[in-house]
Amino acid sequence: MMAGNASTILSGRSVTKKFGGLIAVNDVEFDVRKDSIIGLIGPNGAGKTTLFNCITGNHKPTSGSILYNNIDVVPLKVHNITKLGISRTFQNIRLFGSMTVTENVLLGMHTDVRHSIADILLRTRRFKKEEREKLEKAWELLDICGLSHVREESASDLSYGEQRRLEIARALATDPKLLLLDEPTAGMNPQETSSLAKFISEIKSKFALTIVLIEHDMKFVMGLCERIMVLNNGSKIADGAPREIQGNEEVIMAYLGRGCAHAEN
Description:
- It is a single chain.
- With 265 residues, this protein is an alpha/beta fold.
- The protein folds into 2 domains: 1-85 and 176-265, 3-Layer(aba) Sandwich (Rossmann fold), CATH 3.40.50.300; 98-175, no CATH class.
- It has 10 helices and 10 strands.
- A 6-stranded mixed sheet has the order 6-7-8-3-9-10, with helices on both faces. A 4-stranded antiparallel sheet has the order 2-1-4-5, with helices on one face.
- Strand 7, helix 7 and strand 8 (210-214) form a beta-alpha-beta unit.
- The chain starts with 7 loop residues before the first strand and ends with a helix.
């Protein structure tokens, strides 16, 4: 993604993940610059989501290192990695459909609990104060994400595009500095996709985020991302600016195809 230096927020060195005899991620190296939007692309089964899972602790790499602000996250549990400032959404939406929109966002704050069990049982002033602060924060995030008008509705009643935004709102509730988005436009129509691109740019600026996203919509990726890394069969085959990626013969053969490469130029 770029050569590592003082502005690097995330880096991976020789990251490999094996599942039995299958090598899902093969000796991948990367550096992510702070305050950037990076695209991670490649064919289905290329290892993109597995790499995300290694970064967030859902999988442990078989070998290699992953540093976030110079802290090795490989030995850490998922909730500890979240506390450091890494949050994500998933390829398949993971909302609690029977809970309200607000309740789904409040769940994102579970790693930042300051009250004790006694506070809960006695409903102390400290508990009530923290409860109110979290509720106000949830409402603020929903307003930013354009969901304040549905905050008391069940998550299952939202449109697909609204559910995607709710997932992002819940991820923002953890106060991340690095946000990983796994196929955020999946299932969206062109209008929703265009709106989401603008929204991602806005939250990047508002929350001083670094964003890495997996995506198959090349128009979306090329228009939004500053740099793009390409995986194929678990290995990195290219890393560069959008125009470089569009003209890369190996990427064209493995993923983009001639039509896509010419259409975006």
